[in-house]
Design goal:
It is a single chain. The chain is an alpha+beta fold and 237 residues long. It contains 4 helices and 9 strands. The strands form 2 sheets. Strands 1-2-3-5-4 form a 5-stranded mixed beta sheet. Belongs to the RNase PH family. It comes from Chelatococcus reniformis. Its EC number is 2.7.7.56.
Length: 237
């Protein structure tokens, strides 16, 4: 039995609340159970210096965790002078995931910066961030289209992410912290609305996992991201 008493293929309750930031062009408060992430998307009317003159835009992301998002207070990374390796890796993952579904030339020489701030953490912060970031990005692009800044369909598809793992010998979907901290295998899947795989991160904490177990984790991930994409569609309509 899972600590949360959920069946192996059941996700935590997920909500996507749009328009939660007054000033951002797009925003979303995403909740995966007790994991809450505040996502904003901000338009900048200039491309990164290394892209100038190339006629295409960019989507980038930053990720951070509030000091008391966890059981014990963690020090703000700004006080250490640089983000941790974990933070750097997660924000790069979020950026890659969003760029996979954006027509960058259609943005013109502009940048959309997506900020994901973890208000409360109970496992799966990166997957919640990617799922909520897509909603914020969608609304930012809709804001741009409404003002004739861009035309066409710069956003090509949905993208969502979910964690899966092997806990007490059983493949399970959407791990909370109690499972994540004791799982034999922990994996994160980023999948588009049309089923394309953007990224897979999988690690065996104990014994190596088998090919059959990987296929089962992928099956669960597709089930979970399918539900998340349905929620994204309902949120933005």
């Amino acid at each position: 039995m899972r600590p949360s008493k959920r069946p192996s293929d059941e996700m935590r309750k997920v909500t996507l609340e749009r328009g939660v930031a007054r000033y951002a062009e797009g925003s979303c408060l995403v909740k995966f159970g007790d994991t809450h992430v505040f996502c904003t998307a901000s338009l900048e009317e200039r491309a990164p210096p290394w892209l100038r003159g190339q006629g295409r835009g960019w989507v980038t992301a930053e990720y951070s965790m509030l000091p008391r998002a966890t059981l014990e207070r963690t020090r703000r990374e700004v006080n250490s002078g640089k983000p941790s390796g974990r933070t750097h890796e997660i924000q790069r993952l979020i950026g890659r995931s969003l760029r996979a579904v954006v027509d960058l030339p259609a943005l013109g020489e502009r940048q959309i910066s997506v900020d994901c701030d973890v208000l409360q953490a109970d496992g799966g912060t990166r997957t919640a961030a990617i799922t909520g970031a897509w909603v914020a990005l969608h609304d930012c692009i809709a804001w741009m289209k409404a003002r004739s800044i861009v035309s066409g369909q710069p956003l090509k598809d949905h993208v969502a992410a979910v964690s899966c793992g092997i806990h007490q010998g059983v493949a399970v979907l959407d791990l909370d912290y109690a499972e994540d901290s004791t799982a034999e295998t922990d994996a994160n899947f980023v999948i588009t609305g049309t089923g394309g795989i953007v990224e897979v991160q999988g690690t065996a904490e104990g014994k190596p996992f088998s090919e059959a177990e990987l296929i089962e984790l992928l099956r669960l991930a597709k089930l979970g991201t399918g539900k998340l994409v349905d929620l994204q569609k309902m949120a933005v309509t």
